[in-house]
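Issue 218. Parser rejects a valid record. Input:
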Amino acid sequence: MKKILIVFTLIYQTSFAQNKKSNDPVLKSIKANVEYLASDKLEGRRTGTAGEKLAYDYIEKKFKQAGLKAAGDNGTFIQAFEVNDGKKLTKDTKFSVNDVPLKLYEDWFPLSFSKTGSFAYTFSKTAKYKVTLLQVDLAAAMEESKTNPHFNLDDYLQTAIKEAAKDGIEAVVFIILRQPRMACNTMPKQN
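Output the parser choked on:
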């Protein structure tokens, strides 16, 4: 009988404690905030997306409601910062076609997952390496995937590279037909 009474007491106390916690307004607020910030409406909150803006607008509103003082850029709660994807460009980062140098960021840019090294190629049927040019419409890809919170532009391009590699292609040069409008500069800086 003692064992049953102890177990009953523990169960009663545990359920009472859980009910008390679930009615706590602070916990309800935290739960509501997390549910909103994790929702599909925010499209994954990736850097430079509309979902990111929805997230920081929501957080800014909550900060104001809490009476916090803005200490970010221009008296806001937002503070700009660089996102380092790990790729560093040097003065030796170059790309040329038929010995004509192209201007970095005007004519071309390397992708964050580009390999480091030197590669020389002349387009001909007897070339040593197999290279392909792939035309991509990044703006269309982003538009088609706007409801997918897990869409990743790098993954999209790497999938195209993997498909080309199945055909023995050793290097891919993307020709970007339309670039998406991004809320941030995703290009690596040149050192």
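Fixed in the parser; the record now loads. The helical segments are 2-22, 25-37, 50-65, 138-144, 153-166.
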